[in-house]
Structures are given as C-alpha cells and as structure tokens.
TrEMBL record:
Residues 146-172 are annotated as: Disordered. Residues 163-172 have a biased composition (Low complexity). This is SnoaL-like domain-containing protein. SUPFAM superfamilies: NTF2-like. It comes from the Bacteria. The lineage of its organism: Bacteria, Bacillati, Actinomycetota, Actinomycetes, Frankiales. Residues 152-162 have a biased composition (Basic residues).
Length: 172
C-alpha cells in the first residue's frame, strides 16, 4: 500500500492534496480484507479536519467524519470500485474533483457514474467539507452512457417555439 504523509504536504497546492487523498483511499481499498474496520481509515484522517468535517452526499444526507468512515467501510466491503480522473480544478480553499466511478457489485452488476466532489479546506489546509454530486444514465430501457462529456448530441434541446436567453426561457 502506498502511504503519503499528509503533514509533509504543507505548502503543497490543494489539488495535489486531493490527488493524494484519493491515492490513500485507493490504498486502503486495495489492502481491504473482510476484517476492514474504522481504524483502516486512520491514514485518510491525516488529510481531514476531523472535528469540523462535514460531508454532504448525493441525497443531501449530512455526515460527520465518524459517520463518513462507517459509510466508506460498508461501501468498500460490499463492492469493488475504481475511479478515473477526468478533471481537477482549484480555487482558493476549494478543489473540484471530477471522476468516472465504476462500481462492481457482488452480484456482478457494473454501475458507472460520473461524480464531482467539492473539497473545501480550512486555513490549516485540511479538508473540512466534502460535497458529492453524481451524474448517471437514466434507468430506462435503451439508456446510453455518453463516454465523451463534450458530445452534446444526446443533450436535451429546447422545444420548438422556445428561445433560451441567459438563465431563463422565453416562449415565442
């Protein structure tokens, strides 16, 4: 397992910290065994302001660090997953991290989603807030997953008689 010392990353750009955080998650997951416990996430806690951490999930559920590591433990012991980095952007105190996630359930089902995680850092450079957003294909017969995000051919088009202007629409 690869170990990255989060303390040694002081002064490093926040995007690099997020990449290291993700590498640490991958390391814990790769080393997982049926006996994975909450202590398995101690390496990850080095990146996090544990006492002030808050995660807002895809269903707007809010969890603290303890609840989040319980969620992670259940998640990684019930399915295999991998991620592929698509984009990463940094602003002062915030990193936007977009990945394609592939989850293989125990029954062999493969779920592919795109997720955007917004990491917010405190003044000490520790993660204090994590918000997760998902895109996935509709659960309908014949649904297609667009491999290229720039392919706009399957995007919804305005109906006839509608002109889009700025943030709203104007019926003609």
């Amino acid at each position: 397992m690869t170990t990255i010392d989060a303390g040694a990353m002081r002064g490093i750009c926040l995007a690099a910290k997020v990449v290291a955080y993700d590498a640490t998650v991958r390391g814990v997951v790769a080393a997982k065994d049926p006996g994975l416990t909450l202590a398995g996430w101690d390496l990850l806690a080095e990146f996090v302001a544990v006492d002030e951490f808050e995660r807002v999930g895809t269903w707007l559920e809010v969890s603290n660090w303890q609840e989040y590591t319980e969620f992670l433990t259940k998640r990684v012991t019930s399915s295999a997953f991998d991620t592929k980095l698509l984009r990463i952007s940094e602003l002062p105190g915030v990193v936007y991290y977009e990945v394609e996630e592939r989850h293989r359930r125990q029954d062999g089902t493969l779920d592919v989603v795109r997720s955007l995680s917004v990491f917010v850092f405190n003044e000490d450079g520790k993660i204090c807030n994590l918000e997760v957003f998902l895109q996935k294909p509709p659960v309908t017969r014949g649904a297609l997953l667009r491999a290229d995000p720039r392919d706009r051919s399957r995007r919804r088009r305005p109906r006839r008689g509608t002109l889009r202007q700025g943030r709203g629409t104007v019926d003609l």
